[in-house]
């Protein structure tokens, strides 16, 4: 299972700037992305240029899919709120059902530091190099 991140608007390589809003989703055992927004929980969307961050857990695939289904049932579009009940809430609520990482899912800052920060820092470096090459045609290391 993994968490997926993408810019809320645009694409990472072209549009993303440090501090821009990100949209977060989570995959089931088949790699399908589940996401929550003002329309409720949905799957099957084609995400372009996203980060896929593995979450190290020992949960069985069937058990994880069941957890994700049950969480999805609770997150109805009527409950969506930009600040209080959003895509991040959906992901952390889903993962909080897994005992071995539940403690990291209680606080968004703790979750981010534990699972997301390193990957997003590496992605930012890659984006910077990519944009430099796009602009100048080369990059000196």
UniProtKB/TrEMBL annotation:
Where do the MKRN2 opposite strand protein-like C-terminal domain residues begin and end? 2-133
* Protein name, entry field: MKRN2 opposite strand protein-like C-terminal domain-containing protein
């Amino acid at each position: 299972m993994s968490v997926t991140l993408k810019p809320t608007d645009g694409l990472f390589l072209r549009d993303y700037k440090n501090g821009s809003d990100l949209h977060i989703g989570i995959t089931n055992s088949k790699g399908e992305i589940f996401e929550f927004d003002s329309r409720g929980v949905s799957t099957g969307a084609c995400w372009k240029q996203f980060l896929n961050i593995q979450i190290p857990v020992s949960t069985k695939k069937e058990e994880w899919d069941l957890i994700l289904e049950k969480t999805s049932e609770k997150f109805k579009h009527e409950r969506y709120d930009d600040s209080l009940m959003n895509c991040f809430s959906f992901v952390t609520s889903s993962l909080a059902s897994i005992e071995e990482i539940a403690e990291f899912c209680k606080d968004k800052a703790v979750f981010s530091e534990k699972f997301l920060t390193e990957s997003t820092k590496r992605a930012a470096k890659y984006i910077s190099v990519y944009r430099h090459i796009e602009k100048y045609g080369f990059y000196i290391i």
